[in-house]
Amino acid sequence: MNKPLRRIAIFCGLLVLTLLIRDNWLQYVKADSLKDDENNRRVAIERYATPRGDIIVDGKAITGHATTDGDFKYKRTYKDGPMWAPVTGYVSQAYGATQLEAIDDGILTGNDDRLFFRNTLDMITGKKKEGGNVVTTLNAAAQKAAYDGLKAQGGKGAVAAIEPSTGKILALASFPSYDPSSIAGSGDSDAKAWKGLLKENNKNDPTLNRALREVYPPGSTFKVLTAAAALENGLYDSADEKTDSPLPWTMPETSTVLKNEGDLPCKNATLREALRVSCNTVFGKIGADLGNDKMLDMAKKFGFTEEQFVPVRSAASVFSDDMEPSQVALSSIGQFNTAATPLQMAMVTSAIANNGTLMKPYMVDELQAPNLDTIEKTDPEEMSKPLSADNAQILQSMMETVVKEGTGTRAQINGVTVGGKTGTAQHGVDNSENPYAWFISYAKQSDGSSPVAVAVVIEDENANRGDISGGGLAAPIAKNVMQAVLDSKK
Please, are residues 405 and 469 in contact by the beta-carbon 8 Å criterion? Predict the structure, then answer.
């Protein structure tokens, strides 16, 4: 071969080698980044080329699919979308996915690595690719009771309900809400609906999952945690022991008198009586007597200060670690910097109802392959033990007194033992805005088991201030949720 031909051959060989290197670089090294590139329309086309699997509640799908024109063949549909949005989230051809739709996207689209063998067989046999299912722990009747109650109230609010013995989430409602079906496509109507949901265009912020992502001052519902701290640390030994609670009581290192909501029998009241009438002075002094470290330790045992993943992320509830004694007093009655999600307060209640054991909350029972085989099953898991069984039962008796003859009588259920605590939490600078109305509760069956613990919070900026109370606004919703769960057990 003459010299010019040899040079041409070498040059062509280098070109082929460069092409091979570039091809392997794109197919292997850059594969993931190209696949995830928002401008790669082929991935999106493939994603919507087959129907998604379903999200299941009580054996029935709360999701579906519809065919569309254009490159994207299928889009997601939702049944009772606004009611279930805090559970499902959304999946949209234009706006991505959130919550269960995002977390379990691989199962729902059929692309999860655990479905590889099945997908390979289907490809060989020519069977159409299918998505798997996400089976939730939710109770449809409880969810409906929660959502309908919030909707009837007309303001903003949220409900979380848990099965204490397992940690299964039975209801997770938020209001105002939105219909995920309205933004599932990529057309003009979807764009208009999306724009209307954005917080800058809608002050009600309907896509905010208030049950998981909003933290509120828990007000007097936090007093059950303060009572638990008093019992666990040996400050008091029983529900009916008189406390060291002067009236009036001046917060330590201040000249400020902590006030009760009215002329209440709080002087040296027992724990039971103090919880029944909701004495700020008693529980504020308990917090100050125990100190920041012991109160923080108890709050952490119940789940405060850390995000929860159920598997959707829940915001961390707040109890500060560097407070003056007066600030600890205010925090111990659910004010100052103390803030909690509805899920967190349902966790507190469930641990008390479960004789002191807090189970890790979760809302996905199992993941299913398209043929309904179980891919993954969630087993109940103990999260912590905030208080002993004996102290939990003391606290149960106190909460049951609240419902029998205290501020929570509107949560009573015929033939069922109910324990609860009301809360009306201050809101705004110098309590200038309408307060938040809280109610936490559990229902106990005749065998002593507790199938449900509930937390309800209502924020109604349009209500008459004097009409706002946990017992008046939130307790009836909690009652209906508990009743729905009890009826489903029959």
Answer: no
